[in-house]
Model the fold of this input.
Amino acid sequence: MKHLPKHLQPRYRYLAVGIESWPDATVDRRGFQRALWDETRALLGDPGSAAVDPSVLQFDREGSVGRAIVRVRRGTVDRARAALACIDAIDGDPVGLRVRGASGTVRACEEKYLGGPPEPSEERTVVYQRQERTATARSPRVDVRQGDAFLGVTEFDCETPNRDAEIGENHESDRD
Amino acid sequence: MLPHSTAATRSERRKAGACDRGDMYEAVHAAPEGESTVSRLAITAREYGYDGIVVRNHGDQRAEFDAAAVAEETGVDVVNGVEISAEDPQQASGYLGNFRPDYTLLVVHGGTTELNRFAVEQEKVDVLAHPMAGDGDLNHVLANAAAEHGVRIEVNLRPVLRESGGTRVRAIKDLRKCWELIEDADAPFVVSADPRSHLQLRGVRELRALGEEIGLPGEAIESGLAEWGRLAERNREINSESFIEPGVELGPYDPES
Done:
């Protein structure tokens, strides 16, 4: 179809969204898009969803952090924010979401709010509550494995792992 | 010359606006009750645009942390609070006395008519948390009592953020009722998303937008988040003679500075 004259073309705003999860989460673009549609519909209803018309333009993820650009209709940024805030989990994996900023173009959005690539994370062994544990670290954030789940800590909470002598055998973590 | 001066005025206005708004605080449950430590919550809160956090773990699952050390490492003010969950008013009353000396903020875990009524009539109570949870309810009498005794009523956004379907509809209905009563009685209030991990934190603007969507004014959301900070400041001033936390400046009140 012939494209619309300029004054009738839809106007958009672009939201830079930060997505955080536990390191074992399998959050992908498809899942995020679905969660966004579901939540927009649940919170704003069908008319609201049509008005906001959110769509995920870019998505990348490295370890437990991801970033996305979400396109919404101009004038609906706050409604979109509200819907984004209500995304609690993506495909069953809990996520933390934050709108880093909104721009009128994809490029401005990338340059102003996404910056460089996400910090890489590394596997390491840390001593938390006097127990050696495997963890995924993105300094200073550390996700400590605890059975099937994780615990969000920071480097300030951990001791240096090479003081083996100090690790008490009968010290059990409160959580285990 | 003209564009310059306009820009200056605008930035000044923005600064003034920021001052009016006050510092943004969120009230969190840290490990072992939640899934993240106080310092992780503090780091994330800073990223999300908060100036401080209030640790509101329940009395039986207290977090171990050094508020001043975390504040220094993360640049986020950390307020040591406790959420008192009691079976009945007598027990709550006992806890209030026991906890007061050790905590800056005392929050009563509401949600039953008896505890809600008890909390709003106690000047010692700083915040009545989630009064509408469970079987809890509020009415104009309780809201007026809260206003009279200076007890903050919590507008808890947690169920709106984390529930869905009918449960969420009821939660939104309850919050609207709660807000109408607060407004009518001109009762003091706080707002919280009540996060239990760093992943459950949400930004100030997001909460504000969500508030607007469910019928709570955006300014009220911001003012309710800032209220935690004002409460903490007030209580620290009151307590400053009996204890001084390292790293927390409790200088004399000086309106000039």
Confidence is low (pLDDT under 50) at residues 1-19 of chain B. The beta strands of chain B are 25-28, 52-55, 77-84, 105-109, 127-129, 152-156, 189-192. The first strand of chain B starts at residue 25 and ends at 28.
